[in-house]
Amino acid sequence: MAPVTLAEAKKNTTDHIDLQVIDEFRKSSFLLDSLTFDDAVNPAGGGATLTYTYTRLATERPAAFREYNTEYEDAAATRERVSVDLSPLGGSYSVDRVLGNLGPAASNEVAFQTSQVIKSTRAFFSDQVINGERTGTGDAATGFDGLNSALSGSSTEYRPDRVTDWSTFASDVDARQALDAIDEWLGLMDDTPGAIMGNGKTIARLRSMARAAGYYSRTEDAFGRTVENYAGVPFRDLGAKAGSNDPVVEVGARTVDGAEATNVSDLYAVRFGLDGFHAVTTAGGSIVRQWAPDFSTSGAVKRGEVELGPVAVVLKQTRAASVFRNIKVAA
Are residue 258 and residue 285 in the same domain, yes or no? Predict the structure, then answer.
């Protein structure tokens, strides 16, 4: 099977309801719309093989000139073996058959509950991409490690031991100078990122700096929505965690170089692609499915479900993603 995106998966959908659900996931999550899904995991064996194992390029080897009559100094790139377990995520709801048929189709109880499950699943997926940690062992294992964990201690973790103060800018000159750090940070990656991701406060600071320096632009996505860019790179607020007002990329207090720092947060950048940052799912399966309540049979209360996956995310090369640590966004 060839790797697919949600846009490609939509073309193979014959059920009108499933098509609508895929569109809702695409419209509500730029991450799900941007990721390529490698449908490479064979679910044979009753689900016991839902593991994707790959080799991650951890550090690249250097090159140098050689003097005549001397040998090159030995050096080597380093790799590490990484495994992720695929897990389904989503939710279910129950609807009384009387309520299920009240109101227009676009706003009845079934449509409302379905949209809310999609909303929470999208938020939970974004949260796991950043903050996810695999829990459990064996068949009981669920979830996957997010970028916060994958990039900790890596060569693309930028300024982990110092605070960068973006809480105030005395002038546009200060804002433009602050972009030097952004450019240095993005320069750690192996190519231009597909997105810069953060929370509302860090994204607001980045927007302000980009405008001051003349590197701010706006484009439209496939759904006609405005996408903001810094030097051509889209930047996105990942929003809040599912069932909460807390941002996916948290703002809070932490210890930095032995001192307490308050109101600090992070920015993430990723390069999408099968050789960089992508998702994995099962071979021949549907990425998104939904089961509508069946009111044609007896029983007053019926269940509906929406499910994404089984799915996980993969970072094939450390330099395909980066994190800017300890950005102070408020005094």
Answer: no
Bridging pattern class, strands 157-158 and 321-328: parallel
Q: Which residues does residue 255 pair with via DSSP β-bridges, in sequence order? A: 260
Contact 302, 94 (CB under 8 A): yes
Amino acid at 134: R
Range of the domain at 98: 6-61+78-146+275-315
Helices (H), 41-153: 97-100, 109-131, 147-150
H/E element, 175: helix 172-186
Using the structure block, give the residue that is written with the tokens 């080597």: 76
Q: pLDDT, tens digit, for every residue of 134-159?
A: 776 655 566 788 999 989 998 899 99
Backbone angles phi, psi at 287, to 5 degrees: -70, -40
> What are the residues whose beta carbons fall under 8 Å from the beta carbon of 171, sequence distance 6 or more?
none
pLDDT digits (tens, 9 = 90+) for 51-63: 777 776 666 667 7
Q: Are both 206 and 285 inside the same structural domain?
A: no
**pTM reported for the whole predicted model:** 0.83
Choose among 201, 195, 308, 207: nearest CA to 247. 201
**Half-sphere exposure of residue 311, counting CA atoms within 13 Å on the CB side?**
28
Rounded Cα distance between 66 and 77, Å, is 19
